Amino acid sequence: MEEFIGAWLSANGAARDRLLPLLHAIQEEAGYIDDALVPVIAKALNLSRADVHGVITFYHDFRRRAPGRHVVKLCRAESCQARGAAALEVQAQDRLGVAMGETRADGQVALEPVYCLGLCAIGPNALVDGRPVARIDGAVLEQIAVEVAA
Amino acid sequence: MTRVFISRDMASAALGADDVARAFAEAGCEVVRTGSRGLFSIEPLVEVETEQGRIGFGPIAPRDVAAVLVGSHAQRLGRVEELPFFAGQQRFTFARCGIIDPLSLADYAAHAGWQGLEKARGLSPQAVVDAVKASGLRGRGGAGFPTGIKWQTVLEAASSTKFIVCNADEGDSGTFADRMLMEGDPYCLIEGMAIAAHAVGAGHGYIYIRSEYPYAIKTMRAAIDASAHLIAPFTLEVREGAGAYVCGEETALLDSIEGKRGQVRAKPPLPALQGLFGEPTVINNVLSLAAVPFILAEGANAYAAVGFGRSRGTMPVQLAGNVRHGGLYEIGFGITLGELVNEIGGGTASGRPVRAVQVGGPLGAYFPPSMFHLPFDYEAFAQAGGLIGHAGITVFDDSVDMAHMARFAMEFCAAESCGKCTPCRIGSTRGVEIMDRIIGARDAAPVTVSEANGGYLGKALYSRSPDRIDVSIEAQTSLLRDLADTMKYGSLCALGGFTPYPVLSALDYFPEDFGAAAPAKEAAE
Predict the structure, then answer these.
(1) Searching chain B, which residue's CA lies closest to the CA of residue A63?
(2) Does the beta-carbon distance from B11 to A130 stay under 8 Å?
(3) B3-83 maps to which CATH number?
(4) Residues of A with CB below 8 A from B408's CB?
(5) Per-residue pLDDT tens for B482-517?
(6) What ranges make up the beta strands (E) of B180-246?
């Protein structure tokens, strides 16, 4: 990953405001941002390790551990709640065998909360491995469960 | 070859539009992917080009291709713009959305694109700012601050480096207008930003888009690349957020672009004077900037002619949640809440009675149907103890538990607080605990502090003086009001400062859900 960081910075510049785009790039490449990379990033951008750690932990998107092989981001916001998202959340935890905000022990699937995908008239909604899914009911949940079991 | 138009909007894709588009392409049609028209109960929508115009069919599944192409399909809607949902709208900002191919420069130019920028370039910067002032345009992000006055401040600021920042961190639940515009008419936003750059003398701009909007990010990046030569020497780039709601607050957004934690700055200094990298910065919402091309092209008077009181022009209202005809409805200010929810939205999707609507996202007030006479107007909503915010309306039916919604408002604030100021950081967690006690007392269940929400502070508090906490509903309700007061007046930004709106409005309008007697007004009805 050190080489990846070096190459990215020489292509995109090493100013402080590159930190978030760099973190996105690392996560896209490796799936998560390993704590061992914090000193490398800090040195490259001339920041303190605390500074980099602070940014990584502030933003919900950045992961410090490898995610599940599949990620289901289920919307918990008001508009989806108005369409039954709270009950669906309980059902989804049950069916997928993982608590909200956790990765299943076998690493197969992670269930993550998301606060609004901007599909507010057709909820409850989710992003399944980045693909938007709307109007989720028991049948659609079953399809998702089968999809992420693969 | 038959030409068909199918939306590529994220909402349409979520409803299966990609599969429908593939089916039509396989049947030998020329498929043009557009933005969304904005009515989701007819999506996936297919429009077939005929001599009578574009005839809509929807909702359509891939198996319907043959019936659509011979025109016999049961879901034939006729010309989409003649449907009641569209015929009543005043589409100034969303005029092209759903009609053109979002990334086609030829389509954009053919539909009056770039005319505003051309006019602006023929005017002095001051004349452009004057036009925006005369239009009466106010910040569409929620605060409603006059856009022209903000621009004037930046124009007068003495600096050789200035920035235009577009706030596309549309995190409010129940809102999707920014997303729809960026996916359906990205050049409109780019044109608006280029006009702003000309007006204040800025050389570079940023569009900060939340990571939850992958389609919008992709479309905007492609549009910026394709139109770079038309807005030069002004340059633009997209910055992707990272899942922090608070970055929709303008100063937190600026810190996030600078590569820092998205924490709120104290104001003053105003971003207009010391904004991004300490330089004078115009920071506007997507809808504010996207309204500008119309204002320049058609004239400030054409825009200001529509509206209500001091709220001039149109508002792209978003009907969301448990609503039958959800979608985007652009209309002049002044339409009542009831018309929007009952007549245009058609009531709830579940068919049950409407019990509450939340206007303006997670920080907006909950209103009961007895408030449906309210006109959509910044001042009228402020006076009623709410806000129109980004104009999202989330509809709830009578199965909603308003105490649960009040708890959620506090929980959301706790999850998303940037942590800079105490009333928001700690007040929100205390608020969740109070709501747990109220709900516990209401349901006559023993009060337990859940591990997830109690934290060690909560446990310490209970362990020291469990008998000193009066857990009666009355005592906890008055504590909640006291806490709301502290958060409202003591927080640095709208996250902590406005969280009391949903909480107190739920408490005031729906006291029966908080274990109190129903309000006298409702009992009399």
Answers:
(1) B242
(2) no
(3) 3.40.30.10
(4) 78, 81
(5) 999 999 999 999 999 999 999 999 999 999 999 987
(6) 204-209, 235-240
